[in-house]
Amino acid sequence: MVCHPPLSPGKKEKVKVMEKQQKPHGEKFDYIVDDEPQSTDEKFLTPTQILTKAGIDATTHYLKQVTKGEESISYQNEPNAQIKMKNHLKFISVRKGPTTVS
């Protein structure tokens, strides 16, 4: 049996804060970016985080969430919006700036 010295009051508070920040074991969200499967255990991600986790440069691209039908949600002007993650969300990356037509 290993005995540890008692924690000072400040250390007890830090331990409690760390326990609250831990996520429930096994909670994982599967989603798609540009037809590539992704997953996270974060309950909220920003468009910038979603792009970065997918290996896409968030300085040259913005995120669109594909919804049912022809609708989509653009995060072009909200790169730091908090998106509540859930399974089966679908996103596409869109290049910023003018597009050229050949």
What does the model show?
The structure is a single chain. The chain is an alpha+beta fold. It is built from 2 helices and 7 strands. The chain has helices at residues 9-21, 47-53; strands spanning 29-33, 36-40, 44-45, 61-66, 72-74, 83-84, 89-95. The strands form 2 sheets. A 5-stranded mixed sheet has the order 2-1-7-4-5, with helices on one face. The protein has a two-stranded antiparallel ribbon with strand order 3-6. The radius of gyration is 20 Å and the shape is globular. The termini are far apart.
Descriptors:
102 residues, 5-stranded mixed sheet, globular, alpha+beta
Kindly state the mean pLDDT as a whole number?
83
Give the beta-strand count: 7
Q: How much strand?
A: 25-35%
Biggest sheet details: 5 strands, mixed
- Enumerate the spans where pLDDT stays under 50 for 5 or more consecutive residues: 11-21
Provide the spatial order of strands within the biggest beta sheet: 2-1-7-4-5
Quickly give the structural class. alpha+beta
Helix/strand order: HEEEHEEEE
**What count of helical segments does DSSP give?**
2
The dominant shape is: globular
What is the distance, rounded to the nearest whole angstrom, between the alpha carbons of the first and last residues?
A: 74 Å
Instruction: Estimate percent helicity.
Output: 10-25%
Output the radius of gyration.
20 Å
Task: Write the topology of this structure.
Blueprint: H1 9-21, E1 29-33, E2 36-40, E3 44-45, H2 47-53, E4 61-66, E5 72-74, E6 83-84, E7 89-95
Parallel strand pairs: 1-7
Antiparallel strand pairs: 1-2, 3-6, 4-5, 4-7
